[in-house]
Amino acid sequence: MFDKMSTRQSQYNHLLSLLHKHSHRRRAIQQIHCHLLLTNPLLNHRICLLVLWNSLIKHYALGTFPQDALSLFKYIGNQRNPFSFDTFTYSYLIKACANMNTPDVGNQLHCLSTKVGFHTNLHVQTALVNMYADSGYLVEARKVFDEMPERNLVTWNVLLTGFVKWGEIGLARAVFDAMPEKNVVSWTGMIDGYTRVNRFHDALNLFRTMVVHQGIRPTEVTLLALFPSIWNVGSLEFCQMIHGYTEKSGLKMMDVRVVNCLIDAYSRSGSIGSAWRVFEDVDDESKNLVSWTSMISAFAMHGMAAEASHCYKEMENKGVTPNSITFLSVMSACSHGGLVVKGLEFYRKMVDDYGIVPGIKHYGALIDMLGRAGRLEEAEKIALGVAPSETVVWRTLLGACSFHGNVVMGERVTRRIMEIELRYGGDYVLLSNIFSAAGRFVDSERVRKMMDGRNASKLAGITLSTCRDFS
């Protein structure tokens, strides 16, 4: 008898070990699944079998095929002697419904879990809050939350992030303020919420409160959630604060995403020198394509065409393969820097050497490059050939016509734009300015009246300023 027990225990340990070892290999898990169905090696040890079935359900629920978890649950439940599933089973199944975005099935599991007595279980109810909130059923999520006799920090964070996901920032803040305790996940969720709804100063203020006043250490996820707010505000002060923190904590060296965002943030805040120093501080093995593209884009943003071109060549020398965004960045740099020959060479390299199909933005950069250099006929020919119905491309060409005072082409391009869209006031203004610069004031006035007659929209002027006081 002892030998039989030892054999069963050995079988159980072996199967459980295989499940854990191959948890990310679908084919191996399916083989174990089939083995359990065909052999029932632990038929008289229902607790051990339940652990194995739960491990399978967990694998399916959290993996690429969550529907398999529900199928397995249904199959086992339809057997002659069905299992009495535990709270782990229901938690995994409800998570599968969240991953599948099937709240109707999740609602059925909600009813079933209540029927079997898990309506007060912390883990099952937290899974339900997550499932409803993740699917946008915020009223149901709040109802389950309010009826829970016990909640933990995970439960509070699940509700908070659910409100954030669906843009209910006021409800999210109310949950945040009511939390009996908060961790870095709570603060990160709220910062992310403010960033999502473009309340950038609120995000920065909350981050400062978190770090300075509460002494909570942000993670790389916190920083990644904060960077869009730094970009939009253009706060060099916050760039330096984040940079200093990453240097001291080691986050910059651990996560290349933080490095890439820091390069971009410094560039957008006007400090290209700091962006370059961050880039240079990272060893070549840690840099990825995004790192190189971010630096090239930073040079392009600051009109440093030669530096962007040199950075691209260094990237190629390091064996990093560029993508379409890399080429768009370096072409834009050449356009703004007047390096037409280099820009055309990059375009040729993109198409011929790397086989990348140009997008509308690449054609726009190409036309802008030729237009700035006064090669308007070439630019028009390209626009006619590749983007006859793209107003963005034609407006780029119209801007070049205005810059070079080409009245004839300006009229022709404007007519082309009017065939596509009539109600954008900027087109009329540009053509009117072209006429005025050529001394054709009657025609200029006629275009202005045409704009008013067609009620074309005009963007109001605004003043942008960077706020330095976030206290």
TrEMBL record:
This is Pentatricopeptide repeat protein. It comes from the Eukaryota. InterPro entries: E_motif, PPR_At4g14850-like_plant, PPR_rpt, TPR-like_helical_dom_sf. Pfam families: E_motif (PF20431), PPR (PF01535), PPR_2 (PF13041). GO terms for molecular function: RNA binding. Keywords: Repeat. PPR repeats lie at residues 121-155, 183-218, 288-322. The keyword Protein transport does not apply. GO terms for biological process: RNA modification. It comes from Salvia miltiorrhiza.
